[in-house]
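Data card: per-record layout.
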Amino acid sequence: NDLNIVDIRSYNKLKEFLDYGSYNFIIINSINKFDVSADKIVNLCKKYPKISFIYITHSDKGGNYNLGKSSIGQDVDIEIKVEDKNAIMLKNRLSPIDVSSKTYKIM
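The structure for this 107-residue chain is written out next.
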């Protein structure tokens, strides 16, 4: 029932935060500005399997991720692109049917 909003900008501080708390969800905005490799992010998810991690990345107008973090999209279960107030499902490994390119209007 609690919500904690913290400003953590390093991988080591995040690990310390996770070690001393009990969380269902962790949202990181923006992973592009978080100084950590995609491998460390994947290892973090493996170390804390009961936590759902939500990573928000930002891209340029050409759709390229900043700071070379595009490899993180290969390791996630669900990938959603938000564009012009629409959420477009790019990938969902958890769905029994193909939902790629399904669009949801964001109000």
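Known properties of this structure: The chain is about 20% helix and 25% strand. The helical segments are 11-19, 38-47.

See the next section for split statistics.
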